[in-house]
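User: Let's play a game. I give you a shape written as tokens, and you guess the letters that built it. Ready? Here's round one.
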């Protein structure tokens, strides 16, 4: 029979409990001793009447440690080499998609619209976060391509779901004279890829690169080939190319010499000069698209008789290029590539005065980019069925032009570029190749 708590054991009791641990015998002898729990193993070293509770807690401590991850972890099974490769590829692919979507993307220059400032075959890194990263508008699309699947003209995205235009805050705004990558605005009515057809999602339209010559709120005009902003002459890029007629003696130019000065061979899809034939006895005429400094150099050569700037006075209504112009009546305005405007570049939140005469300039802004219904009846303008004498844009717009002024499809043809079409800011050329590597252009900053 066991002794009562607080009473010494009898001999019989002592025999009954002699197999118990020593600390239980101590507890039975003096149950008022202060309890303590061993710090390492969770076992009581000094016991009391709360011995059962202490023992329960001590037994739970190892389990609590395992649940909290404090105890020793069981060894993980070793991955097979194939599994390690798959994990590495998935991680690298995910990281590349995030970088390409939100930070930096590589682009290649395919045409000569920015010739001499940017060359055909230049590969650029373009920052998407400078102007603010534009969030994806068609989330279900094939990764690492733009708008077509590899080796095909099949669309690389699903039209549903389609997300609205959203842009994260950027570090800078698009400034006048910045080189900008953007989506071709007229791809929904005049597609660059007829097999792909019209594209109405801004982020999936074809990528273009031009120079921003006018920003929101500017009064833009071209006079005799010179850009004017708010009545003041604009900045001319050093490599900007104009049109010149050059007259030489009967010997003309040597094609190999012209190549040394950056002119492409005749027949090249981006050729930048063309012989016109004889203009008189012993004379040859040429058209050159070149910077001013090269025109000045040509004028010093002894066999060159005349170098004169060629300016387009007015476009003929039958000119095939008129099909690309953004809707104005050539007879009403009398504009050309060298004499254009004036017009106001739309600015977010600033009302635009509308008249039947200037309505055609802003039709695309109101209908295609801002999503309103526009109608002209009996000299009265209706927007969404309501008479209107002005329109307040909800986005900023920009006027873009190529530095190669006469070999550039730009805002003179298809109008303003909305802010939801802005892709990013080119940083530098990381590689350049055309008929061989152009080492001098690698790591060249873009101005």
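Assistant: Ready! My guess for every position:
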């Amino acid at each position: 029979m066991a002794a009562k708590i607080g009473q010494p054991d009898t001999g019989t009791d002592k025999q009954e409990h002699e197999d118990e641990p020593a600390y239980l015998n101590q507890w039975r002898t003096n149950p008022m001793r202060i309890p303590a729990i061993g710090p390492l193993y969770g076992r009581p070293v000094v016991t009391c009447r709360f011995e059962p509770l202490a023992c329960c807690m001590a037994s739970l401590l190892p389990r609590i440690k395992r649940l909290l991850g404090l105890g020793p972890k069981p060894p993980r099974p070793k991955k097979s080499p194939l599994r390690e490769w798959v994990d590495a590829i998935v991680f690298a692919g995910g990281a590349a998609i995030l970088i390409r979507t939100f930070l930096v993307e590589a682009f290649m220059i395919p045409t000569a619209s920015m010739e001499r400032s940017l060359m055909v075959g230049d590969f650029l890194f373009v920052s998407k976060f400078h102007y603010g990263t534009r969030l994806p508008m068609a989330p279900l699309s094939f990764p690492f391509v733009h708008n077509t699947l590899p080796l095909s003209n099949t669309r690389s995205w699903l039209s549903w779901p389609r997300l609205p235009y959203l842009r994260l805050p950027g570090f800078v705004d698009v400034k006048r004279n910045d080189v900008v990558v953007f989506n071709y605005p007229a791809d929904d009515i005049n597609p660059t890829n007829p097999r792909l057809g019209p594209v109405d999602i801004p982020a999936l339209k074809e990528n273009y690169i031009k120079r921003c010559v006018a920003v929101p709120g500017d009064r833009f005009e071209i006079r005799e080939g010179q850009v004017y902003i708010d009545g003041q002459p604009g900045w001319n890029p050093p490599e900007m190319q104009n049109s010149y007629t050059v007259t030489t003696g009967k010997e003309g130019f040597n094609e190999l010499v012209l190549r040394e000065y950056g002119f492409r061979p005749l027949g090249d899809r981006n050729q930048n000069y063309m012989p016109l034939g004889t203009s008189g006895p012993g004379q040859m005429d040429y058209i050159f698209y070149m910077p001013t400094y090269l025109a000045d150099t040509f004028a010093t050569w002894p066999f060159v008789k005349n170098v004169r700037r060629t300016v387009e006075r007015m476009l003929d209504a039958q000119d095939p290029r008129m099909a690309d112009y953004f809707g104005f009546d050539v007879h009403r305005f009398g504009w050309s590539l060298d004499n254009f405007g004036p017009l106001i570049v739309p600015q977010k939140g600033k009302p635009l005065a509308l008249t039947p005469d200037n309505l055609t300039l802003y039709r695309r802004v109101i209908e295609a980019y801002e999503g309103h219904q526009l109608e002209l009846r009996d000299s009265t303008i209706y927007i969404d069925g309501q008479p209107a004498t002005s329109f307040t844009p909800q986005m900023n717009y920009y006027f873009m032009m190529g530095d190669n002024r006469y070999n550039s499809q730009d805002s003179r043809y298809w109008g303003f570029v909305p802010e939801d079409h802005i892709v990013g800011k080119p940083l530098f050329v990381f590689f350049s190749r055309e008929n061989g590597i152009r080492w001098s252009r690698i790591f060249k900053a873009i101005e």
